[in-house]
Design brief:
The structure holds two protein chains of two kinds.
Chain A lengths: L2 H5 L7 H11 L5 E4 L3 H8 L6 E3 L7 H11 L5 E6 H5 L3 H9 L4 E7 L2 E2 L5 E2 L8 H7 L5 E3 L3 H12 L5 E6 L13 H11 L7
Parallel strand pairs in A: 1-2, 1-3, 3-4, 4-8, 7-8
Antiparallel strand pairs in A: 5-6
Helix pairs in contact in A: 2-3, 2-8
Chain B lengths: L20 H11 L2 E6 L6 H9 L4 E4 L3 H13 L3 E2 L1 E4 H4 L3 H8 L7 E5 L9 H16 L3 E5 L2 H18 L3 E5 L1 H4 L7
The chains are: A alpha/beta, B alpha/beta.
The structure holds thiamine diphosphate.
The site of thiamine diphosphate has 14 residues of chain A, from helix 5 and strand 5.
């Protein structure tokens, strides 16, 4: 794994395990947006819920999509799961979110330092940049590394009642996602809208 | 009308009887319950952006990139709130990926207003080339688009296009031509 993970003194965790821990905590129909590739594969594998949205492209847009949901439904907590490589494509979104301050938005970055799904090439940020420092510098003061699994769960609990948007970064291993999302975009979108109470099934 | 629009309007024009292009767009958005307006600015759009900011009905804000703005309004629509994205031609040129991998396959009624640079007096060769990529991209995805040149047609085209986008769950691009807005001319 990457040397930067050691210097940060955080445990190297696993995406599927972390995602499953998150899902187990959701009791109020919270929305969850899974980013391109492994993040939504593991969200799918953790057990489909009507409030899950799976991205099949548009790399880097998990946080912006979640921001839109959060602005539309301020009473609902909205989570977004994004890979570090994907986030690098859309760092400006962090400032947009910081400016709008939706307190119901919780961003989770799965940082393996690589583009795992395309062949595990290191990202340009690997070993030189720090996601939490970038987020804090973008105006998201409520940003933190999860030290280990228990700390991740504690940070999620805090974020559930936070008064500003939260970002939780997790050092993860180089494993691929454990499931494969059924790639049916219209059904994914329609069922998500049912899950959010926006529409009734036909 | 046209030349005056090159400058930022000194007066916010919000009265319902307002017959400026930006006044008509603002009222049409409101009538169609479109309240979330992320944008990446364009000089020509300045009076519209300013008046949207001044009207508490709208949540108007700058995004860092146009595709980010598309992601935001897509999420908002799934959450039950309507939005529209404002951009210039070069902003549209960054959107092929998000249109083809999010808006179109997920059937999202993405409403885009594009201020058309690159034609009718363009002074920047780069802008005019970027402009030429816009309609081929729209046509390659079979996306509905209209180029609006006349003030008397604006309300009809905008209102009908928004309603069609929502009911058919398909994106639409409304291209605001310099004949409508005055465009931008060489200013040193
Ligand atoms: C604009 C764009 N560029 C490149 C790709 C190819 N691509 C798909 S997923 C991916 C890597 C994603 O990396 P990350 O978000 O870190 O997740 P990981 O694969 O490591 O889980 C890349 C490069 C793409 N889909 N879109």
């Amino acid at each position: 794994m990457n040397t930067d993970l050691d210097t940060r003194n955080t445990k190297v965790m696993n995406r599927f395990d972390i995602t499953s821990r998150l899902i187990a905590k959701l009791k109020h129909e919270e929305a969850v947006i899974g980013g391109i590739g492994n993040t939504n594969f593991d969200l799918w594998a953790a057990g489909h819920r009507p409030q899950n949205f799976y991205m099949l492209g548009s790399m880097g847009l998990a946080f912006p999509i979640a921001l839109g949901v959060a602005l539309a439904q301020p009473e609902r907590r909205v989570f977004a799961l994004e890979g570090d490589g994907s986030l690098l494509m859309q760092l400006g979104a962090l400032s947009t979110i910081a400016a709008l301050k939706p307190k119901n938005l919780i961003m989770i970055v799965m940082d393996n330092g690589i583009y795992q799904i395309t062949g595990a090439q290191p990202t340009p940020a690997a070993g030189v940049a720090d996601v939490v420092a970038i987020a804090a510098g973008s105006g998201l003061a409520n940003s933190a590394w999860a030290a280990d699994e228990e700390d991740f769960e504690r940070l999620v609990d805090e974020a559930m009642s936070a008064s500003e948007p939260s970002l939780i970064a997790v050092s993860i291993d180089d494993k691929p996602g454990v499931g494969t999302t059924r790639r049916d975009p219209v059904q994914i979108r329609e069922r998500f809208m049912h899950g959010l109470g926006v529409r009734e099934p036909l | 009308m046209a030349t005056a629009e090159q400058q930022t309007s000194p007066q916010p024009a919000q009265a319902s009887g307002d017959k400026t292009w930006h006044g008509i767009i603002l009222q049409t958005l409101k009538r169609n319950a479109i309240s979330l307006i992320p944008y990446v600015p364009d000089r020509v759009l300045t009076p519209l952006i300013k008046n949207l900011h001044a009207d508490p009905f709208f949540t108007t804000f700058a995004a860092a990139r146009e595709e980010e703005a598309v992601g935001i309004v897509s999420g908002a629509w799934m959450g039950g709130r309507r939005g529209a994205v404002l951009m210039q031609t070069s902003g549209f040129a960054t959107l092929a990926n998000v249109l083809a991998s999010l808006a179109v396959p997920y059937q999202i009624p993405l409403i885009m207003f594009v201020s058309e640079r690159g034609t009718l007096g363009e002074f920047n060769y780069g802008q005019s080339l970027v402009c030429r990529t816009m309609r081929p991209v729209l046509d390659s995805l079979a996306l509905e688009h209209h180029t609006i040149t006349r003030l008397d047609e604006l309300e009809f085209i905008a209102d009908r296009s928004i309603k069609q986008a929502v009911t058919t769950q398909a994106p639409v691009a409304l291209i605001l031509n310099p004949l409508l807005t005055g465009g931008k001319v060489f200013d040193k």
